[in-house]
Amino acid sequence: MLSALEKLVRLESPTDDLDACRSVIQLASDIAQEVLGSPAQIRDVNGRPVFWWGVDKPDVVILAHLDTVWPKGSFQPVWNIKEGTASGPGIFDMKAGFIQALFAMKGIDGSVALVATSDEETGSTTSKDFIKEISSKAKAVLVLEATLNGKVKTGRKGTAMYQVKIHGKASHAGLDPHKGINATVEMGHAILAISGLENIDLGTTVVPTMLRSGNTTNTVPDLAILDIDVRSFSLLELNRVDAAIRDLKAVNPLTRYEITGGFNRPPLETTSTMALYERAEKVAKALGMPPLGHASVGGASDGNFAAAAGAQVLDGLGAIGDGAHAAHEWVDITTLQSRSAFLHALIKDILDD
């Protein structure tokens, strides 16, 4: 398992490097040949490669991704082992989870497929409809995103992304400032209104992120652009924030608002996860493992799409470690085999139902 994981991690695969993503999917297929005795199918989904090993129209979908957030050469060293841990770009999120799933497929006979996409880190733009389609026909979707300190994930926030453009009018900041319409000043009002939409009690966050405004230091800005990240465990909350952003009113009526964007991923709610979680705890107990535990988290995954398609989902079945998207990203390599064996038993339990 460690040798296979090292191969995957050393082949860096940032989402926006399509050639690298094709290479990592091909490598994963080659590893499948070694581990499972036959290569994966490499499917084209809207111009991007997808790893598929197993039957068509599976009852159980094992869902992963092999793209990472790390540009080539940005994570150094690219592979390192120290005191029972391994580090490298994308090892925790989520190449170790894929390897655990691949080895868990050994000896599985039934209606199951291991599927790995290559655009999850940028919102699964090309693969989300494909994920919904295969999930809608499945009894269970098991997502190999990383654990939360060993816990599986039974809830994830839904996400929405917006961009607000405010159009004003340029003029000379020294000679004729009052002949201009200051888009930066108007954006200040908008930012305060937008950030006030959060609801801490319900876990709804509304975060103004990237801001760009103006052209030169001596010109009244005629354009300001703001990106907004919205997350919530509740679809009702996402709808509330969506309506409020689209209904923003200008303080200066001479400015013009242009609002684009919307929902990216719906929430993964516990109504879609708890039945599989309870089954997973029974399987873990039968194996003599301590209780898994579960948690709801702020980050989204392709499990959100699977749940939206009506599937029963259990997420966070992947690696134990820490540092997703961070410079200290690592996994506990002493748990790779035991977590893979647990997944194998869970798959068989679902298939035997």
Task: Give an account of the 3D structure.
There is one protein chain. This protein is of the alpha/beta class and 353 residues long. It folds into two domains: 2-156 and 267-351, Zn peptidases (Aminopeptidase, 3-Layer(aba) Sandwich); 158-265, Alpha-Beta Plaits. It has nine helices and 16 strands. The protein has helices at 2-10, 18-36, 91-104, 128-136, 183-195, 235-246, 274-286, 302-308, 336-351, and strands at residues 41-45, 48-54, 60-65, 80-82, 85-87, 112-117, 140-143, 152-156, 158-167, 205-213, 223-232, 256-265, 294-297, 313-314, 321-322, 330-332. The strands form four sheets. It has a six-stranded mixed sheet, with helices on both faces. Strands 4-5-16-15 form a four-stranded antiparallel sheet, with helices on one face. β4 (80-82) and β5 (85-87) form a beta hairpin. α1 (2-10) packs across α3, α4 (128-136) crosses α8 (302-308) and α7 crosses α9.
